[in-house]
## 1
Amino acid sequence: MSEPKKKKNVFVEGAIGSEFIAKSIASHGSKTDIGAHSIFLGQVRADELNNSTVQAIEYTCYQEMAEPILHTIREDCFAKFDLSCMHIYHSLGIVNAGQVCLFVFTSSKHRTNAQEACSYLVERIKKEVPIWGKEILEDENEHWKINTNKTND
């Protein structure tokens, strides 16, 4: 099992682009002890609210609180699953509908660890990390996103 890593910056400004995701995946090609990767991409939906469509979400967070929580989640995940590595990135600022706002990438020798760790990370991030989203609607109204059923978002 790999040693837990130092604290990493999880937050990126704006959407997480396909080039960034592809580069992250490609950088693991030389790591020949890895047999499986699992990737979760969270994307902003164009939901309908009050006869208006969500155009974007503006993400904010309390970073001084979020960073230690994310570090704990990361350490817990390394302790629970036999992983080679993991990466977590979450957007801050405005992310348009159709763009990626959360990128979770886990790697291990075997697929089960990578898949279960990826799901574990996403669930803990959504439940524990102080990140908020303000939905920006096409009619120029705004609405704070409320996750009523965290496991189904």
Note: Residues 15-145 form a domain with the Aldehyde Oxidoreductase; domain 3 fold (CATH 3.90.1170.40).
## 2
Amino acid sequence: MDHTLLAADKAHIDSFQKAFKEYGLKPAGAEKIKPMFGLISYKLIKKLYPHLSLKQCKEVQNLKYKHLVKHSHKYMKPIKGVKQVLKKLKKNYHLGIITNCRKAEIPLLLKSADINPGIFEVLIGNDEVKRPKPAPDEVLKAESIIHHKASYLVGDSIYDMLAGKRAGVKTIGVLTGHFSRAKLNKYKPYKILKSVAELPKYLEKERGEK
């Protein structure tokens, strides 16, 4: 969802920094936070503040969630072309979201970016599985709900690539996040595209070649 469908930097950085300040931590700069997007929040917090216990990291994570839901979500924007792409894809594909955000955040963040959550058949958050990405659990849960094997997992991060591969799904990387083509290539994705805007044309070509 974030950085694949949504331009999410401002919303997440704002909510993280508000949480750090409220917890009495020196707020980390955006340049430290951005390279770790894709990790579940408490693990990101632990990397920034290694002296915190796991319990403390989860307390900060809860504050981050509070600020995102209360205020920072308003900064969410759709990545260019996403709304048109989703309408095109819906004609031929089952669409779902798996994300390391909490389930309750998903519709709020989509609506904040003027994307209808109803276009997706399944929405899976990190709090619905034992092991979030980069584990395959979110992918497998989505498949079990819609009774379909996923054909592709599209994402911006190395954690997406790992989750897709571990679930036996073709992974497509997009360059709208904070992972370079070189970094994504290390995880051998099936394809790398500039953004989801290129997805319909690419998938049409794929279907034609089969």
Note: The two ends are 28 Å apart (CA to CA).
